[in-house]
Design brief:
The protein has a single domain, classed as MTH677-like (GMP Synthetase, Chain A, domain 3). Helices cover 48% and strands 27% of the residues. It has two helices and three strands. The protein starts with a strand and ends with a helix.
């Protein structure tokens, strides 16, 4: 699954800030998935977060998860959707915080 967030109104982000927003999104998504499913029940978990742009930042989050066959009734797609939402929330909060610091 790939989701895109576009955030306008930022001055050019440094490479460190861009890297930080990607890292934050990835960590948030991973924590969310692991809070819902035990790691031993996850066969594969790949999370990719990419940021592009300067004044208009495009953030792409892709999560690929394969769960144990023992979790037959578990909705993996809903897990992925919710993890992506949480990752975007944390990325948006970070970007809002950057905007506030830039205005000062």
């Amino acid at each position: 699954m790939v989701e895109v967030l576009e955030e306008a109104g930022l001055a050019n982000l440094t490479s460190e800030q861009t890297e930080e927003v990607c890292k934050l999104g990835e960590e948030t998504a991973r924590r969310y998935v692991l809070s819902k499913v035990a790691s031993k029940k996850i066969e594969k978990l790949d999370i990719s977060v990419e940021a592009e742009g300067t004044n208009l930042l495009t953030l792409k989050i892709e999560i690929d998860v394969a769960l144990s066959p023992l979790l037959k009734g578990f909705d993996a797609q809903m897990l992925v959707d919710d993890a992506v939402k949480e990752a975007f929330k944390s990325a948006e909060a970070y970007l809002r915080e950057l905007k506030c610091h830039l205005k000062k």
